[in-house]
Specification:
Elements (H helix, E strand, L loop, with lengths): L2 H28 L11 E5 L8 H5 L5 E8 L3 E2 L3 H10 L3 E7 L6 H11 L10 E4 L11 H19 L4 E4 L1 H7 L8 E4 L12 E8 L8 E6 L3 H4 L4
Parallel strand pairs: 1-2, 2-4, 4-5, 5-6, 6-7, 7-8
Antiparallel strand pairs: 1-9, 2-3, 8-9
Length: 234
């Protein structure tokens, strides 16, 4: 047997195993679902990236709540926010709005943008501020700088809504700034893996899920508790 044939004889099974393992891992990821006996309340988060959504079909597909992007920075509005808010409310979903916090605009400007866009009487869930590096500007504030600007956002938003903001925060962000910012309830991102700490109220477990009424992938979430606990005070 030639050296090349001998190599193929031993290499081919390894390649087959690697391909099978990769395919199996992808299938596991695509079908991942938290234990529904522990976390029965499922929701989604959306933005303009999901396009036009059929909210009646979404509500019929085991979805109880939705957080939708409203604003980003000091002047950006999500183009689908008003339509999503109206449609989700008409479908009977519990609705909430989130703001993507940029490091390159004053917190007060960002709060004004969010408050001018989101009618507090139209939402059931607490306001959310999205704290992460992906999609943010290149500037990295010191811990003290971020604490000041984030507080400038929190104060007027929480005063207006009458409840504390929830942080959607990535592990990388919390590792760098978690000890410096005001403590709030957490919405954790942990794709296909349960968060390793219990300090969360919402868990984003999938970033490419499927839901009837939405064309293409969508983020999937579960609550740590009952839905009523997240809408208390409204």
């Amino acid at each position: 047997m030639s050296p090349s044939l001998r190599f193929l004889r031993y290499a081919l099974p390894v390649v087959v195993l690697l391909v099978a393992g990769t395919a199996g891992g992808y299938i596991t990821y695509r079908n991942y679902e938290p234990d529904r006996t522990r976390y029965p309340v499922r929701g989604i988060d959306v933005s303009h990236h999901q396009g036009t959504i059929d909210w009646q079909r979404v509500a019929a597909d085991d979805v109880a709540f939705v957080f939708m992007k409203a604003t980003e920075g000091g002047d950006h509005l999500d183009t689908e926010f008003a339509r999503n808010l109206e449609g989700a409310r008409e479908a009977g979903l519990a609705v909430g709005a989130y703001h993507f916090f940029t490091f390159c605009r004053p917190g007060a400007d960002q709060a004004a943008n969010f408050l001018a866009t989101v009618p507090d009487e139209a939402t059931d869930l607490p306001p959310v501020v999205d704290l992460e590096y992906a999609g943010n500007c290149d500037y990295r504030p010191t811990e003290a700088e971020l604490a000041v600007e984030l507080q400038a956002f929190l104060a007027p938003v929480e005063a207006r809504f009458g409840r504390e903001v929830v942080y959607y925060a990535t592990e990388a962000f919390l590792a760098d700034y978690g000890d410096a910012i005001p403590a709030r309830q957490l919405w954790r991102r942990s794709i296909a893996w349960e968060p390793d700490t219990p300090d969360w109220i919402v868990w984003q477990y999938h970033n490419a899920g499927t839901v009837d009424g939405i064309s293409g992938p969508v983020d999937l979430n579960v609550l740590n508790g009952e839905l009523a606990g997240l809408v208390v005070g409204r």
